[in-house]
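Format notes (please read before filing issues)

Several people have asked whether sequences and structure tokens are stored in separate files. They are not. Every record keeps both together, in the order shown below: the sequence lines, then the token lines. Line labels are part of the format and must not be stripped during preprocessing.
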Amino acid sequence: MATTFKTLLPADVVETRNRLHEAIPVTGTIASGTYSDSNIKNHAHGMFQSVYDYPYLSSSANHIFDLTAGYATDSAVASSATTNQLATKNNLYNQMAQVLVGHDADGNIRKFDEDGNLTSGDKLEETYFINFARLLTKDEIKKGSFNLQMYLSGNSPVGSATARLNLTSIQDLNGATTYKVNSPAGEYGVLYTGSVATGSAAVGLVYYQAGVAVLTASIFDAGVAGNTQAAMLASTYTGSAELLASGTVENVADALRHRLHNVSFNNTTELNSTVYFCRANANEFNYSSNPTYLTGSKLRVKNVAGDEPVSYITTVGLYSADNELLAVGKVSEPIKKTPSNSLTLRVRTDW
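Then the structure lines:
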């Protein structure tokens, strides 16, 4: 316990915030192919499918994202005669919408909006959801870094890449400057195909803090060459309406997963720090409070009575107002302190 204290002034304390970014690549072969689907977990509730980076029964497996789909209760798909899991898909859409989009003034759940304005523009009523694990996104997805590459056409069997066509990049173009802030879940950006952020190229939304990508089912419209209007089966790719209506959520997740080529983004870790500048002026801390500093009432480090006192700083302690030790910082090697020098030790606490 220290016996000499020095009060830190406001000018000695500085708070900073840094954002650390890490590049995250998720290859399509992880989602389908590498482990022959032993890393894919289908749940008994049938509401979503989980993807792991290794066979999920292994202790070293990490959960990386979930896949699911849903549509609004008044969607045209909901009235299809071949609708499967109608209530589940409606509930999934409503659950994601109320969390990510919120409610209007009348308490009704808002629909996903193509351009993010909420009051105007086309609504996304039939949607796929990719919910990334916090292990990947950390505090948030870095704005402007999201890139999802998908095959938008072709009706090859599941697991086959030979007939997958129309590889397309879906990105949050200009996301760093044009992101939206009218979501209860934080900031989000519009996803576009191509290289220009035009309304006709908007195909979904990415919620940065929530780590969720929302895609419109129309990207797989049957009008795209190679898509068929056949009923959705686990072994067949189909058009958006049939895929959402006739297939189970598990079937839909399978079809979506096998069309993934690559996903990449930068995650963000927000590091808040408080920096304390601990100053030892020339006439301060030249004596040690360690009992072994003295022997026979004399300073061990002095050979001649007229020599300057000297001490070696090894530790900095941060104390509360009532002298309770809160934090301890150690220097890499003892620092010599005499009346002939002054020191400033920079102590940083991260949280």
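For reference, the curators noted about this record: Residues 222-239 have pLDDT under 50 and may be disordered. The radius of gyration is 30 Å.
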